[in-house]
Design goal:
With 639 residues, this protein is mainly α. The chain has four domains: 115 residues; 212 residues, 3 Solenoid (Pectate Lyase C-like); 49 residues, no CATH class; 111 residues, no CATH class. Strands 7-9-8 form a three-stranded antiparallel β-sheet. Strands 1-3 form a two-stranded parallel sheet. A hairpin with a 4-residue loop joins strand 10 and strand 11. The two termini are 85 Å apart.
């Protein structure tokens, strides 16, 4: 098994060829001269490593350069001065060069470039010497011929000299040829003389890497490397550039031109794409999580279900170039709105529309008022409903088609939004007021019951003894003296109790339990009904809860201020509803059964007498009464 930790180690000239080194830590190590060809290096950590030629390779390079310099000196000596003494020196230099060349080829193991250069220099030098010798003997023709050939070989020598210097300079040190480096990290590394030929470089982190004299796959060109290392592509042109499967997390691409670029499967988490041109950009499976897309143009871009927009920061976008077709037309997206709506902006759905996102459903009255105002104010815009889409989490996305292409959608969007929110708040206030009224009615109903249960019975007095107090009922005569709540013994005299209850409770009892009962249980029928419905709901029976809900709808309609019912009809209607509710709590009571039947027959007639309840009686009352009968039928009660 390979060692799984190589942090800060000197690994020069080590071979890791074809080894499985996935996720191994090589950070801050010296990997000059290492061979990683065909290795599995997915997720490996190469941060701040040093690549290039090792010390051994540098020594061999020095030998090659020495041979080349000596050879070039021979060339200059034999071709620059036509003195016999210099020629003799040149002969000696050629011999020295030949010996060095043999050492370079045999001992140091250098390539054929040095051999070719050595041969060319030796031949050129020998011909130059022969030409000089011919000139010295007066053989002009022979000297010219030898010199010409010497110049030819000298040209070859110069060419091979340049090529060999170039080869030495770019000779690979660290080898990653055909290695799998998916998700590897090279940030802040010094990458010199490295060979990445045919390597898999998907999602490699090249942040702030220093490259020099390296070999890469053809699709990892200078433009892409500059973006991956600098992380700054603001206002740069990347049109039609292949950025597929690159690690571009956190890159600055504000205002960048990505027209028809390939961003498929790229990692653009936390990237800044503000005002970027993403027209016709391919972004299938791209990760835009936490990226900034405010002001970007996304006309005709390609996304799919695998494209991620988690927590994208986007105030608005454009659907056409030159900042046209802003969405939203006014205001900004709320957090999370863009992720919900981005798929609604695809080519098949985009048109000349006004778009609205409603959170937690649509408030119908507010929508109706806002739409009516919009249609009245912008009659020439040719507005009509385009589509309504459920985008999840209870949110609704509504499109209004705009027939007039010249219509300014921003003020229309702003007016509708303002009117809708205003009337939504008013509706919420009305609901809160109704809830408060219902609570008050419930409290009044409870108070009524309390009053009924608290009525003093005539002829009831307390007789206090040393051990306890006990009631005395129907005493022929009684007279109460002293404090009945005192710990002291009280004096009691019997004297006409049945007629003297006024002396106990304080006079007129007509509002308590006497003849006039309207102030207690009879007058507040609304409170009594609220109490009855509360008792019905307290049973927790599903059918009882359904019945209570239906009867509440009836109660709310009857008690509506603009229902148009007079006080007498309103009281009758509420009593009928109360009779049905009581039957739900006491289903075997024949009295209640008859009253409930009469109530169901009488309610439609009474409700129709209310001018404000005409629509309710026609559209909703039949459904409610049918629902009541269905619930009662489930209990075996047929009305």
């Amino acid at each position: 098994m390979p060692q799984l930790h190589y942090h800060k180690q000197d690994l020069q000239n080590r071979s890791f060829k074809q080894q499985n080194l996935a996720d191994v830590n090589f950070s801050k190590s010296d990997i000059r001269g290492c061979n990683f060809s065909d290795a599995m290096l997915a997720g490996a950590d190469f941060q701040q490593v040093k690549t290039g030629q090792s010390r051994k390779q540098l020594i061999l390079q020095f030998v090659e350069i020495f041979v080349l310099v000596v050879g070039f000196a021979v060339f200059l000596a034999t071709n620059g001065i036509a003195a016999f003494a210099v020629a003799l020196f040149a002969v000696a230099a050629v011999v020295l060069f030949a010996v060095a060349g043999v050492f370079a080829v045999v001992v140091a193991g250098t390539g054929t470039g040095v051999v070719l250069f050595a041969i060319a220099v030796v031949v050129a030098g020998a011909l130059a010497i022969a030409a000089i010798s011919a000139f010295c003997r007066g053989a002009i023709a022979e000297g010219i011929a030898g010199g010409s050939v010497a110049i030819l070989f000298a040209g070859f020598a110069i060419y091979w000299f340049r090529e060999q210097i170039k080869t030495i300079r770019y000779r690979r040190g660290t080898i990653f040829e055909a290695a799998d480096l998916t998700n590897a990290r090279f940030s802040d590394a010094t990458i010199h003389n490295a060979d990445f030929s045919n390597a898999t470089l998907d999602f490699v982190d090249w942040t702030h890497v220093s490259f020099a004299r390296c070999k890469f796959p053809n699709d990892f060109n200078d433009t892409i490397r500059a973006l991956c290392t600098s992380r700054n592509g603001c206002s740069q042109d990347y049109s039609q550039v292949n950025l597929q499967r690159l690690h571009l997390a956190g890159v600055e691409l504000e205002g960048a031109n990505l027209l028809r670029a390939n961003l498929n499967d790229a990692n653009l988490q936390n990237a800044n794409l503000k005002h970027a041109h993403l027209e016709s950009t391919q972004a299938l499976g791209t990760d835009f999580s936490h990226a900034v897309l405010t002001g970007a143009c996304i006309q005709h871009w390609g996304i799919n279900a695998a494209t991620r927009f988690n927590d994208v920061r986007c105030d608005y976008i454009y659907l056409e170039p030159n900042q046209q077709e802003r969405r939203p037309a006014s205001g900004i997206f709320q957090p999370g709105d863009f992720a919900k709506l981005v798929r609604q902006f695809s080519d098949t759905l985009v048109s000349n529309t006004l778009d609205f996102l409603f959170h937690n459903g649509i408030e119908p009255q507010a929508f109706d008022v806002a739409l009516r105002n919009l249609l009245t104010e912008y009659e020439d815009a040719g507005l009509s409903l385009h589509s309504l889409v459920d985008v999840g989490d209870g949110n609704r996305f509504v499109k209004l088609a705009v027939a007039n292409p010249e219509a300014d959608k921003a003020p229309m969007h702003a007016q509708f939004t303002h009117d809708y929110e205003l009337h939504k708040q008013l509706a919420a206030s009305r609901e809160a007021e109704q809830a408060a009224q219902q609570k008050l009615a419930h409290a009044e109903g409870q108070l009524t019951v309390y009053r009924e249960q608290s009525v003093f019975l005539q002829g009831f007095v307390y007789h206090q003894t040393d051990q306890f107090s006990r009631p005395i009922l129907n005493a022929p005569n009684a007279q109460f003296t002293g404090d009945p709540m005192s710990d002291k013994r009280s004096n009691i005299e019997l004297n006409n109790v049945t007629g003297g209850i006024n002396s106990l409770v304080g006079g007129d009892n007509s509002g308590v339990a006497g003849k006039e009962i309207t102030g207690a249980a009879g007058g507040d029928i609304s409170g009594t009904l609220t109490l009855t419905l509360g008792q019905l709901e307290a049973t927790k029976d599903p059918d009882a809860l359904k019945l209570a809900d239906l009867l509440k709808q009836l109660k709310t309609a009857i008690e509506t201020p603009d229902a148009g019912l007079d006080a007498k009809d309103k009281e009758k209607a509420l009593k009928h509803v109360d009779a049905i509710a009581k039957l739900g709590g006491d289903r075997k009571n024949p009295d209640l059964l008859e009253r409930a039947g009469d109530a169901l027959d009488a309610l439609p007639t009474i409700v129709k007498r209310g001018n404000g309840l005409l629509e309710f009686s026609e559209k909703y009352l039949p459904t409610i009464t049918a629902g009541i009968k269905t619930v009662l039928a489930a209990w075996g009660i047929a009305l």
